[in-house]
Amino acid sequence: MLKLNGVSLHYGSFRALSGIDLDVRSGELVVLLGANGAGKSSIFLSTSGLRTPTNGSISWNDEILTGRSPAEIVSRGIVLCPEGRKLFPQMSVLQNLTLGAYVHRRDKAGNKQKLLEIYDLFPILLSRASQAAGSLSGGQQQMVAIGRALMSRPKVLLLDEPSLGLAPLVVKQVFEAIKRINKAGTTVLLAEQNAYAALKIADRAYVLENGRIAVQGSPESLMQNTSVRQAYIGA
Prior knowledge:
Blueprint: E1 2-11, E2 14-24, E3 29-33, H1 40-47, E4 55-60, E5 63-64, H2 70-75, E6 78-81, H3 93-99, H4 108-121, H5 124-127, H6 138-150, E7 156-160, H7 168-183, E8 187-192, H8 195-201, E9 204-209, E10 212-217, H9 219-224, H10 226-233
Parallel strand pairs: 3-8, 3-9, 6-7, 7-8
Antiparallel strand pairs: 1-2, 1-4, 4-5, 9-10
Helix pairs in contact: 3-6
């Protein structure tokens, strides 16, 4: 289980997170909803070791992650697919994917098998393997970003706004892929502004407002919550 216990995070005098209590059980797909600045990305930065919480602790299967380096956290199977993709645009699709396997760089056979799995998940990437990542469409770049994260063989995949800026048809393809990833055994924590699409595939969800958890529950309960519908889904 991934568990955040009383996590707070400050950027100077700005409080991005205030006493976050959150858990993701093994095999679950849990969604974080909230507007820009609500704290979703700050949860991911704290969990992946890119920011150290001001207070509180983060653990995975009772092992404390707080204070560990990003590389140590990746080696334990907690992998971030960041908002904005963060690809190396001049490098090829294959080179970008291969970078994700750095933590397993000595296992060439295992990396080859994982690469085949990613091409099965996103077939278009096989035909684009030698193409510069920066020349791809936004949707294809997002597929590369997810594929690169999967090359790290995550136990928990942190997906930050994967549908941002994508056309509706591509959003559907990306969410279908996320569902497949989860069904194959990877635990997923997904931050999304597309609340309706995210809740359709989620086991549970948290709604963040101003760095705090405002509401949590099943997708069905959040769909029926008038305040949540008005703010994030639409009447």
